[in-house]
Amino acid sequence: MSRPDRIAEAFAQARSQGRAALVVYLTAFDGGREHSLACLCAAADAGADVIELGVPFSDPSADGTAIQAAMVRALAAGATASGVLELLAEFRRTHATPVVLFGYTNPLLRLTQATPSLVERAVAVGLDGVLIVDLPPEHAALLRAPLVAANVHWIGLSAPTTTASRRAAICADATGFVYAITLRGVTGATLGGADEAALAEQLAALRASTDLPIAAGFGVRTPDDARRIARLADGVVVGSALVEAAHRGTAELAEAVAALRAATVR
Amino acid sequence: METPAPSATPGTFGRFGGRYVAETLMPAIEELADAWSHARRDPEFTAAIDTILAEWVGRPSPLSPARRLAAALGTDARLWLKREDLNHTGSHKINNCVGQVLLARRMGKQRIIAETGAGQHGVATATVCAYFGLPCVVYMGAVDVERQQLNVLRMRLLGAEVVPVTSGSATLKDAINEALRDWVAHPVDTHYVIGSVMGPDPYPTMVRELQRVIGREARAQVLAAAGKLPDAVVACVGGGSNAMGIFADFLDDPEVALFGVEAAGEGLAGRHAATMSRGREGVYHGMRSLVLQDDDGQLLEAHSISAGLDYPGVGPEHAHLFETGRARYLAVDDDGALGGVELLARTEGIIPALETAHAIAALGEILRLLEERRGPGPLDVVVNISGRGDKDMHTIAARLGSRGAP
Predict the structure, then answer these.
(1) Average pLDDT over residues A177-201
(2) Which of A254, B222, B304, B374 could in theory staple to B310 by disulfide, Cβ–Cβ 3.0 to 4.6 A?
(3) Active-site residue flag, B55
(4) End-to-end alpha-carbon separation of chain B, Å?
């Protein structure tokens, strides 16, 4: 394969530095295209190892209030799925940080029927992976094969409720890394007093099912949360808290990312 | 007694349907599908449903001949009204709620959630929960809370918590999103009573089967009264549960034409809820179906004078029946629906829900279509009167008042 596997490199580099990779979620176009681009650059410069770029959707039924609000702002600012990929192309001129599209099926499904197609655009702009919230293994065929054939990673998604047989199917499909959802609920919950033992058990079961890096998230808001997760997983995903920081400004975002990055050291 | 889903893959209708939900929900969906597939074959479970429907809901509902309506339409066809408006709580919605809440109890669920648009499904769910003493949370768009105050009061009187939803367009689709978010957070102890033949499998099939009682009764009643199968069955379609319920027992009778009537709102060129006429294939609310969406795959806000049809998607089995041509779908606009309310009120002494009025208003066109292929015998047409119009009196008064009638 001719494309660099930036995701594998990012996790390997973090591991060699004795820390978990910091995976930063930002909703594309939140605050408009220019602000969104500035936020991506600020997050990468402040130490994000992987960026999950949220594709705005009118009906984000798996997201909590912070990301819902970001999507409303982004759509009002003219966000489209194709626009998100153009934003990524612009980011790629200055940064090599791996980027995963994070979103819902419908906008990406539309793009598969467009010219150029989703896969052609993904390859052209240097997209590293795709993570679709509402496309379980049963239906992955709708989008997966052409992306994987083009070396765009298909990120697996595992939940606390996932059964052993489902976990096997998820890991069989996954490339790049597997995202372990740490809590029941939508994005933006708080990790708080989450049951550490249950979480460790969930991650151990996942570890036994795949050789891919495992990034854990949902409810990770503070450096303390990140420190807890960094001990258990290869990567720490932070979403809503950084979406809120990005809404306040790029300086606030950079500061929050740097603090989280420091907390990923084991 | 049941027609198998018209597809080899369970939970799909052709390529429509499926389970497009977040991974956190998949185990709950699998648990529900498993519980449903056992329960539906358990004679004790189906007998428990039948008993409640008879003793408490008031089933069977009558099939009323509509002679003055036929005369007003200038037809010699025999029109038959399936009277779901006479059910407890005033619509067909309660048939589904009784079955799903009984199933939830059987599964050991301790909490019921539901979404509602017009409030009919919310009221029906709250009513059944009160009957069984189960806590009930109903998500309702803030816009709908405002325009359906009476139903909000009814739900609260019945002990349900009504949660106004302010996200998105603050209507039915957003209430569904919020109910899904609740369910993702409480997948173990909570059952989500979806109110129509939509959402992820097993809901489209399960809700159709729980509404099949409409078609089963109607079929026996029309055979007894007319001595033959009807030439056509007509129902309004939002998500499509009253239509799938009455269609279900006629699907295997090719001589029975099936007509669904959706909401053309302010007209198909403007704001509407005509998913069949104007929707495109998409993935939404857990299912692959026809959806009102823009070129970027974002959902469009639906509009209809009837809150119950104000939904930008449609049940996947309807999308399949539309594509295969087994059912035909027409669209009636807001003014047409108001005309339908007046027509049925004046000719038959029945004030239908605005949703139902769309089906009444389409009868003229449907009768013309039927005349084209008519045989020598009498024409018989069954119309599902899915609900009564009490809830809509404010809307009806405002609109009829503004045009100076009657």
Answers:
(1) 84
(2) B304
(3) no
(4) 47
Task: Return the minimum-mean-pLDDT range out of A35-49, A125-139, A167-181, B8-22.
Answer: B8-22
Q: Is the Cα torsion angle B143, B146, B149, B152 positive or negative in sign?
A: positive
Match 């990140």 to its residue by tokens.
Answer: A226
A163 contact B CB<8A: yes
- CB-count exposure of residue B65 (10 Å: 0-12, 13-18, 19+): middle
Respond yes or no on whether the N-terminal peptide bond of residue B60 is cis (omega within 30° of 0): yes
Q: Which B residues in the span 371-390 are in contact with A, Cβ-Cβ below 8 Å? A: none
Task: Give me the pLDDT at residue B8, please.
Answer: 43
Contacts of A197 (CB under 8 A, 6+ apart): none
Q: Check: CB of residue B247 under 8 Å from CB of residue B327.
A: yes
Compute how many other C-beta atoms are within 10 angstroms of the C-beta atom of residue A219: 24
B192 interfacial to chain A (CB closer than 8 Å): no
Q: Whole-angstrom Cα distance, residue B335 to residue A237?
A: 52
Test A161 with B286 for CB contact under 8 angstroms: no
pLDDT in tens, A235-245: 999 999 999 99
Measured between alpha carbons, how far is A43 from A100 in angstroms, rounded to an integer? 14
Q: What is the pLDDT of residues A191-203, one digit of tens each?
A: 776 678 888 999 9
Query: Is B115 an annotated catalytic residue?
Result: yes
B289-302: average pLDDT: 95
Interchain proximity A58–B299, CB inside 8 Å: yes
As a whole number of angstroms, the distance between CA A114 and CA A50 comes to 28
Paired sense of beta strands B63-65 and B78-83, if any: antiparallel
Q: Which one of B93, B109, B173, B391 is the catalytic residue?
A: B93
Best interface-test mutation with B: which of A134, A179, A209 has the largest number of B CBs within 10 A?
A134
Query: How far apart are alpha carbons B272 and B292 in whole angstroms?
Result: 9
Q: Is B28 on the interface with A (CB under 8 A)?
A: yes
- Cα–Cα dist B307/B387, whole Å: 13
> What does pTM read for this prediction?
0.95
Q: Tokens representing A42? A: 């600020």
pLDDT digit string, tens, across residues B167-195: 888 888 899 999 999 998 898 999 999 99
Q: Which residue of A has its CA nearest to B18?
A: A139
Domains and CATH numbers, chain A: 6-263 (3.20.20.70)
Among partner residues B26, B167, B288, which is closest to A68 by beta-carbon distance?
B167
What pLDDT, on the 0 to 100 scale, is given for residue A1? 46
Is B177 an interface residue toward A (CB < 8 Å)?
yes
Radius of gyration for chain A, computed over Cα atoms and rounded to the nearest angstrom: 17
Q: What are the backbone dihedrals phi and psi of residue B171, each rounded to the nearest 5 degrees, phi first?
A: -125, -160
Q: Is B93 a catalytic residue?
A: yes
Longest CA pairwise span in chain A (Å): 49
Confidence of residue A187 (pLDDT cuts 50, 70, 90): confident
Chain A residues with CB inside 8 Å of B291's CB?
106
Q: Which of residues 105-134 of A touch B (CB under 8 A)?
A: 105-111, 133-134
Measured between beta carbons, the chain B residues lying within 8 angstroms of A155 are none
Three-state DSSP class for A245?
Answer: helix
Q: What is the enclosing helix (H) or strand (E) of A169? A: helix A164-173
